[in-house]
Amino acid sequence: MKKVIIVGGDKVAYHLIRILESEHKYEITVVETRLDTSQRIANTYGIKVINGDGTNVDVLERAGAADADVFIALTGKDENNLIACQIAKLKFKVDYTIAKVNNPKNSYILKVLGVDQIFSATDMIAQMIDQEVAYSEMSLVYNFEKNTKAIIKVPLNSASDAAGKSLAEYDFVGDTRVVLVTREDGEALIPTGDLVMQNGDTLIMVCDQKNFEEIWLNFVRPDLLKKSDEE
């Protein structure tokens, strides 16, 4: 398995971890400064997380940088991403480094100073929307430009605690609303309070973007929630 170190635990990191975990080809270690975020990632994904500064040599050594095949810096500060990648490349001889650039004006300097691949967070988010892969299996249908609302398409996992409950009795996060339900056989249903959600349903929801992750965990990947609770 390829060993991957990710520095930074933001939303891009969460998305990347989900993709890599689903492929079962990578051993992932995350380095994150915030303790609560570190614990959340460890509990959700069951991977190794080092709570510390990704620009610190000792911290990266504890994370196993000397054995890493790929090093990815995703913090919100370009200077930290550059420093982390330089340490990985020069100190630990990591073959391939990747950095997120938050300010596109810094792309050139990161490339000149040895980062192997650079990507813009804005470009990545746009690509995620275009490909409808914001969260695996859950897709973005429409993003409202002037507010934080979005329309999403959510497949209902049979293990979700929503399966078997009516729309009225289920406690949706925030002001999330189901606007259409399609059955496994293709039947489309206009939602009413007494409509019972079933395995195989696809729910079209209007929700706040900040609730994407909670909806994804509750409806699409409840196994991750249960794993976290068991730990």
UniProtKB/TrEMBL annotation:
Keyword NAD found: yes
Gene Ontology cellular component annotations, sorted alphabetically: plasma membrane
Keyword Ribosomal protein among UniProt keywords: no
Domain RCK C-terminal: 139-221
Domain of life: Bacteria
InterPro entries: K_uptake_TrkA, NAD(P)-bd_dom_sf, RCK_C, RCK_C_sf, RCK_N, Trk_Ktr_HKT_K-transport
Gene3D superfamilies per record: NAD(P)-binding Rossmann-like Domain, Regulator of K+ conductance, C-terminal domain
Domain RCK N-terminal: from-to ranges: 1-119
Assigned keywords, A-Z: Ion transport, NAD, Potassium, Potassium transport, Transport
A Gene Ontology molecular function term of the record: potassium ion transmembrane transporter activity
PANTHER family according to UniProt: POTASSIUM CHANNEL PROTEIN 2-RELATED-RELATED, TRK SYSTEM POTASSIUM UPTAKE PROTEIN TRKA
Protein name: Trk system potassium uptake protein TrkA
Species of the source: Fastidiosipila sanguinis
